[in-house]
Design a protein that fits this description.
alpha/beta, Rossmann fold, Arc Repressor Mutant, subunit A, 2 domains, four-stranded antiparallel β-sheet, 8 helices, elongated, binds calcium ion
Amino acid sequence: MFVRILIVEDEPAVRELITYNLQQSGYDTVQAEDAEKAMMIINEALPDLILLDWMLPKMSGVEFARTLRRQDRTRGIPIIMLTARTEEADKVMGLDIADDYMTKPFSPRELVARINAVLRRLAPEASDQVVELDGLKLEPSKHQVTAGNNKVELGPTEYKLLHFLMTHTERVYTRSQLLDRVWGDHVFVEERTIDVHIRRLRKALESVGKDEWIQTVRGAGYRFSVVAPLADDAAKTSL
Ligand code: CA
């Protein structure tokens, strides 16, 4: 499972129903009953999308969405708001705090369709958009990576891997997830293959002083981070 969806909903029955349906559709799910719990989950790893209930105890879904939009790390997470009434839905879209909404009650099938649509729209590694991070520039149309005037020489796999990582920063991916997302097939490729390509990619990025952006997270996988790593769970190891 490579697309991880965070479900923030205080009603256990609704939460379970959504979880069941998303898992049936092949999604990886994680649940939170309030904003506080959701934030703890997000602090550990960014989900690919959040289903966020409007009416939550303590902090409301709207308030929580605003909090996420204010922070660089969480700003880009796609949010689908779950609302009880259409007026709320109008407000959600009007305030520009969610990427889409669902009015309760909704059919699981429609929910899955909406999730797929939002992910397609917001999955940048699949687009031709230029990615630029603190001096490192990746141009899909030219298949080229540069840092200032320096070209970074990459093999096709390293290029693909870097494109994915640059569009998915600040979150940890397991080797298995990287195989799914970058190679598209994790069945016939050994996980240690990832380490080989990560090593090559680091070596290529070393020439422009960006190799430390690829972090090894012990017992988990890899994270591409342009900010300082969290001291307790991230450590760069020599491979
Ligand atoms: Ca609720």
